[in-house]
Amino acid sequence: MRIVADDNGHLFNDVTLRSSGDDSMPETSDRKDDHIRIIEEEDVETSGTGFADVEFVHEALPEIHRDEIDTTTTLFGHELAVPIVIESMTGGHPNTTKINRALAEAAQEVGVAMGVGSQRAGIELDDEDLLESYTVVRDAAPDAFLYGNVGAAQLLEYDVDDVETAVEMIDADAMAIHLNFLQEAVQPEGDVDAQGCLEAIEHIASDLSVPIVVKETGNGISRETARRLADADVDAIDVAGQGGTTWSGIESYRAAAVGADRQEKVGQLFRAWGVPTAVSTIEAANEHDCVIASGGVRSGLDVAKAVALGARAGGLAKPFLRPAGQGTEAVVDFLETLALELRTAMFVTGSASVEDLREAEYVVLGRTQEYLTQRRQ
């Protein structure tokens, strides 16, 4: 595989475009490295989560002490100090080991949950350096709530034992199954066969040794899909709605680098596609009692709004990348800032606990209210 540079000096893998059935694992690993670089260097953010349309009703007489507010919550019986999830980001390339170590050490120190990126490379490649990019998380966070990650499309190829391999790889407390079919549709080498995925998810959910979280990757989950997942007995839904990092946009940059002009244009066209995170959180929470809200969550106030809308926790990914590159201390500092923002929102809504926050008064305005109104018709 040849390495080439674009006009800006950025390095790319000069892959040969192939059918989705010939997606070799070394390229899967190198793609992970591409993704991190693009996220750090390019414009891959979209707006429109809907959180700006959600406004808490201020409580002028909260009658509580801010520093005595209880921010703990539980996820599958595991206590979190703060209802925050460091969302699945990376793994599968030796360059990502440092990032995952810093994230995991911070998750351990602060008491939040963390997921790893897709473990496909770890399952299918015999490479100790690559494998360490995953196993480092449990080594660094022996007590933290950690979840693994495989793609729904891979479940058509994997049996339960393969997914158990991913569980054992990081001694996972849960396993995420990610839905990323828009991303796959834009990838020049993407896997676009989505047939039979729901049945495969249901099979894994019934037989796996740990709980299953089904998560989108930036385009949201509608109430109809949430209902189908609830009927399939998945243990949680991570909505990963529209309004944050756009994987369609990321793959558009990759497509441009290899001269795949059609995929580049499709990626840009669908850059802001999806169900806004606030809407997706409300709809999913009406269908399932364990929802994680991610997708454009950028502050502790956003986490508070997500919880009030029905989520068990709020998840962030991209905002952790830069701190992770700086080291554990920077990630801890960012987490503590998020926690203070959340605690402040709880204080001025009179919420002494996360359970109280779920009952906090809020109003929904603007486009988000219009969207919800149209969906209820």
UniProtKB/TrEMBL annotation:
Cofactor(s) this protein cannot do without: FMN; NADPH; Mg(2+)
Q: What SMART domains does this protein map onto?
A: IMPDH
CDD domains xrefs? IDI-2_FMN
Q: What is its EC number?
A: 5.3.3.2
What GO molecular-function term can you cite, just one?
isopentenyl-diphosphate delta-isomerase activity
Q: Which GO terms describe its biological process?
A: isoprenoid biosynthetic process
What's a single GO CC term here?
cytoplasm
Where, by residue number, does FMN bind?
88-90, 118, 149, 215, 245, 296-298, 317-318
Q: Binding of substrate: at which residues?
A: 31-32, 118-120, 183
Pfam families linked: FMN_dh (PF01070)
Provide the primary localization: cytoplasm
Keywords, comma-separated and alphabetical: Cytoplasm, Flavoprotein, FMN, Isomerase, Isoprene biosynthesis, Magnesium, Metal-binding, NADP
Q: Which residues bind Mg(2+)?
A: 184
This protein's record includes keyword Magnesium? yes
FMN-dependent dehydrogenase domain residues are 47-119, 192-360
Reaction it catalyzes: isopentenyl diphosphate = dimethylallyl diphosphate
Q: Does the keyword Transport apply?
A: no
InterPro entries assigned = Aldolase_TIM, FMN-dep_DH, IPdP_isomerase
The compartments listed are:
Cytoplasm
State the family it belongs to: Belongs to the IPP isomerase type 2 family.
Quaternary assembly: Homooctamer. Dimer of tetramers.
NCBIfam families in the record, alphabetically? IPP_isom_2
Biological function: Involved in the biosynthesis of isoprenoids. Catalyzes the 1,3-allylic rearrangement of the homoallylic substrate isopentenyl (IPP) to its allylic isomer, dimethylallyl diphosphate (DMAPP).
Which HAMAP family does this entry report, sorted A to Z? Answer: Idi_2
Q: What is this protein called?
A: Isopentenyl-diphosphate delta-isomerase
